[in-house]
Amino acid sequence: PCFLKDWELHVHFKVHGAGKKNLHGDGLALWYTQERLVPGPVFGSKDNFHGLAIFLDTYPNDEATERVFPYISAMVNNGSLTYDHSKDGRWTELAGCTADLRNQNHDTFLAIRYSRGRLTVMTDVEDKNEWKNCIDIAGVQLPTGYFFGASAGTGDLSDNHDIISMKLFQLMVEHPLEDETVDWTKIEPSVSLLKSPKDNVDDPTGNFRSGPLTGWKVFLLLLCALLGIIVCAVVGAVVFQKRQERNKRFY
């Protein structure tokens, strides 16, 4: 178990196979969870887990998706959420990005950083020897005492998923004094978001956007705009009338 409050995990991995286009799958997952590895349907590990999962998904199960795969996404679970493979985990995804990580002829790396409630995921898959930002989320609560792990899953289509190394680093970060009274092993995995992950929609750029505008939303926007125009017109008329009256007094 890891009892570090602030840490950074570097993973040297390789995903490769003979399948072309979409004839390969399914992907790789990196875990920081309460349970030691238990086989299951989520990239080889159990569903309804407690903790953090980073998915390196190489196969689009949702035919209507606009995402470009391979796609990296993050999920935090307190045991109550289920990963939906048919939608590639879109309903429980916190954020994500596209990363061309498969069948590369050079080394590929991923870094996961957790510090003072901020989760950051970076990639080095372009042979540039530099980190590229993929995910950056604040308000993440993860307890200490959980386990790091990795798993992968295949179906009728397959790939090779190689974990070459996993290196964990402690980050030296100052915490406020009130953190000293917190039992970090009792914290429940959670994320304080301004919106629910279910508001997430397909977005190849990996940005966290709001859902599409419905008819009611368009109507409300138009109504607010109309009311704003009316208010501005009324205020303008009042100001103009007062100026006219003031000018008359001067004459």
From TrEMBL:
PROSITE patterns for this protein: L_LECTIN_LIKE
One GO CC annotation: Golgi membrane
Top-level taxonomic group: Eukaryota
GO BP term, pick one: endoplasmic reticulum to Golgi vesicle-mediated transport
Stretches that traverse the bilayer: 218-240
Protein's cellular compartments: Endomembrane system; Golgi apparatus membrane
Domain L-type lectin-like: 1-171
Bilayer topology: Single-pass type I membrane protein; Single-pass membrane protein
Listed InterPro entries: ConA-like_dom_sf (IPR013320), Intracellular_Lectin-GPT (IPR051136), Lectin_leg (IPR005052)
GO molecular function: D-mannose binding; metal ion binding
Keywords assigned by UniProt, alphabetized: Disulfide bond, Glycoprotein, Golgi apparatus, Lectin, Membrane, Metal-binding, Signal, Transmembrane, Transmembrane helix
Main location group: membrane
Name of protein: Vesicular integral-membrane protein VIP36
Organism the protein comes from: Aptenodytes patagonicus (King penguin)
